[in-house]
Design brief:
Chain lengths: 106, 116
């Protein structure tokens, strides 16, 4: 199975900050990577797919980059609604696998 | 508008089975696979498998082979996931999610609690 490792596990930031979350895959996955946002008690919501494509309706302050084994999720100008847990997921191979999550807090 | 609506929370005894349903609407059920995932309390997400909306083919994670079943009913655009031989380790929120290579729409989740 492909292991996905996110860093950091917790990120403290302020409103207006630029924040970056890293996701590393244990083997190359091309750009078959998605980023999800999850708020407590809610289902995940996709933000980015194929590493850098913005899902419809997602604010443009979210940006994804990377390929191969290293990927970044960047949030430009953090907003209060962005406080959540973020997961990366590879869909290059079965079984699909997720990172352990990055909790973004104030 | 795409909607995935799951069945309600359930409590099961160890050794029993649970069946969770996912009623879909707003897209062509036969043109997309439906995935099932779960999330144990305080943990990350775990992919369990998918079912093809057209022909019912399935693909499961090796972890669940032998105790998971996925079915579909095209007439009601509903999928079901059944997990057997439950233990306390199966206590989790179970999700269905629509395939667009990535998972672009999710059900609201179904809490399954396994306890004696």
């Amino acid at each position: 199975d492909i292991q996905m490792t996110q860093s950091p596990s917790t990120l403290s930031a302020s409103i207006g900050d630029k924040v970056t979350i890293t996701c590393r895959a244990s083997q190359t996955i091309g750009t078959w990577l998605a980023w999800y946002q999850q708020k407590p008690g809610k289902a995940p919501k996709v933000l980015i797919y194929t590493a850098s494509s913005l899902e419809n309706g997602v604010p443009s302050r979210f940006s994804g980059s990377g390929s191969g084994t290293e990927f970044l999720l960047t949030i430009y100008s953090l907003q209060p609604d962005d406080l959540a847990t973020y997961y990366c997921q590879q869909y290059h191979n079965y079984p699909f696998t997720f990172g352990q999550g990055t909790k973004l807090e104030l | 508008q795409v909607h995935l609506v799951q069945s309600g929370a359930d409590m099961k005894q160890p050794g029993s089975s649970v069946k969770v349903s996912c009623k879909t609407s707003g897209y062509d059920f036969t043109k997309n696979a439906l995935h099932w995932l779960r999330q144990a309390p305080g943990q990350s997400l775990e992919w369990m498998g998918w079912i093809n909306g057209a022909d019912g083919r399935t693909k499961f994670s090796q972890k669940f082979q032998g105790r998971i079943t996925m079915t579909k009913d095209t007439s009601t655009t509903t999928s079901h996931m059944e997990l057997s031989s439950l233990t306390s380790e199966d206590t989790a929120v179970y999700y269905c999610a629509k395939d667009r290579m990535h998972l672009d729409h999710w059900g609201q989740g179904t809490l399954v609690t396994v306890s004696s």
